[in-house]
Amino acid sequence: MAPLLFSPMALGPFEIPNRMTVAPMCQYSADDGSATAWHTHQLMNYAMSGAGIVMVEATAVERRGRLSHGCLGLYTDANEIALSQVMMDAKNVAPAGSRFGIQLAHSGRKGSVQRPWEGGRALGPSEDPWPVIASSALPFSHNYPTPAALNEEGMQTVREAFVQAALRSLRIGFDIIELHSTHGYLLDSFLSPIANQRTDEYGGSLQNRTKFPLSVAKAVRAAVPKDKVFGMRITGTDWTNDGWSTEDAANYSKSLKELGVDYLCVSSGGVAPGLPYPTGPGYQVPLAENVKAITGLPTRTAGHIVVPEYAEEILQAGRADMIALARAILDNPHWIWHAADRLGAKVCYPPQYERINPSMWKAAPIARPQDFLHEGSKRLGS
User: Considering just the CA atoms, what is the radius of gyration of the chain in Å?
Assistant: First the structure.
């Protein structure tokens, strides 16, 4: 039998060829939201990886919803045209059955900042900053801009922006639409009591704090037909007693299931600077396991999972259904090919690369990193 990591699974209307997902990873290389040659190169690499799902990086639904001037967006016709061309190229090199998804996002109070390699600080007056929005007029930190608290009209504008971005995504040809409601971005700023200090119907109780994010999810679900997949990335915990809890995540997940979400990707943290959190391999697996047990939905986990055997162990134990690969595949775009060697699975190579298939290349065992850093890494911190 094939390892679970390389076994197909049902996801909404599709059968996904394996359990590996290339996680959405920001590249900060767009031009006013439009994809560039960098995205073509990056996504063609991911497409050739053999992953069952390739997710495009967090993509802003409004210009003010970007983190930085380099963030990808899908709020203009130019954005849509540019990303359509990139995806056409990527699909041409992807193996049969692989699916492409996009993560739609809004930065909220964490926006209007420099690219990470420029310092990551709030944009200065001469750097074309933009006003930011959030659930409450509380800055992310002392050197970030103070956001405007969204009113009803503003919420409707944002909700419609998510819907329009989803419709653009469908026209481009994405099979999977995912909403980003974690890491302290706009939707998460309503969910977490750390960021949400409202005293109206959108603040206070869990029911109130989830009201706006659930309304966005409901509107996008209505726009995404049942022959496509609709998912959410959610927070499993804020890692602090006065923040979003695992119980909150469980209740939010149940509400999302009722709205027709097809899967959940469970992450954590990011709502405020300076909060301590664990960082060992698999540190978020228990969070995904909790959501999976509560909802029964297909669940994806991530977080320093770099060893194929450990990824397989997570799946075999039923703790999650999918594994998101982020820095591991950024570091080694052929991680999945090498994992197949390690686990005794078969994977399709592009014909141009077939000569490095171990069945045709006797030097493969010498050339390939057999220990993926070192054998004990799967246990460090877990």
Answer: 20
